[in-house]
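Morning!

This is the sequence you dropped in the shared folder:
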Amino acid sequence: QVQLVESGGGLVQAGGSLRLSCAASGRISSTYAMGWFRQAPGKEREFVARITWSAGSTYYADLVKDRVTISRDNAKNTVLLQMNMLKPEDAAVYYCAADQFGRTGAQRMRASNYVYWGQGTQVTVSS
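The structure's back. Tokens below.
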């Protein structure tokens, strides 16, 4: 089992920045990559970014790739999501998730490929 705990959410003005953190514990060695997803009220959960533990290879959703950076600290078993130039439409609950396998293409964005999930952290962006 892998436990994921997100933190760093909050209220920010449009144009501001936030850094989300995901602390992983448990059988982290069973995971290959980590992802961030978000879900706004009434909307489906959507992919934001992904990073592999070993090589640090990253993959971003087109919507956010110019404003978001995902990184990992293997020593601390932590994955970070730096979000800049936030917009009101970025408001959502942000979830950290772990995938056990390597993926290619659009498979990296599929929520169903991630087996472990955190509880989420709320991001609110005021206009």
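Headline: The longest strand covers residues 18-26.

More detail when I'm at my desk.
O.
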